[in-house]
Amino acid sequence: MAVRLFEGKDHAVAYLQYRVMPQELISVVMGHQPSFHLAVDVGCGSGQGTALLAPFFTKVIGTDVSPAQLEMVPTNSSPPNVSYSRQCPAEELPFESGEVDLVTAMTAAHWFDRERFLQEAYRVLRPGGCLALLSYTMDMELEYGDVSDALNDICKEVSNLHFSH
């Protein structure tokens, strides 16, 4: 089961106030994303990272397991193509198979049941879709079938490119 912190109102308020989402990482992700229809930000919290995807996609949907987190989304400043109406666990995304162009988890994937989340992301992504896991640390290794090494190599490349100066 995924770790379920940040579900209470006090945590959601602190999360909105202190969470940081660097915009430069969005540029890196978009450089690897050829299709721009539907993006899903999993574990979106109060939506700071989700809103950054709006200029690149027809539709962006933020999901979170916590209704308190989704209540913290500043609705008056959300772009019209962004919605936060999907409360769900990261491992049970309410999308059809092959429907999503980009699945992101911005500083949230370390809380998920990694194997179940990766299987679910694979299910909802269209062929050639993109999974982008953004994190504060590189202290985790991704394991997913025979592409584990490739996933970890990409993570290290992006980390070295942007955070080694």
Automatic annotation (TrEMBL):
Pfam families, per database record: Methyltransf_11
Species assigned in the record: Salarias fasciatus
Region forming the signal peptide: none
Native organism taxonomy: Eukaryota, Metazoa, Chordata, Craniata, Vertebrata
InterPro entries recorded: Diverse_substrate_MTase (IPR051052), Methyltransf_11 (IPR013216), SAM-dependent_MTases_sf (IPR029063)
Name recorded for this polypeptide: Si:ch211-93g23.2
Gene Ontology molecular function: any one: S-adenosylmethionine-dependent methyltransferase activity
Gene3D superfamilies: Vaccinia Virus protein VP39
Positions of the Methyltransferase type domain: 40-132
CDD domains: AdoMet_MTases
Domain of life: Eukaryota
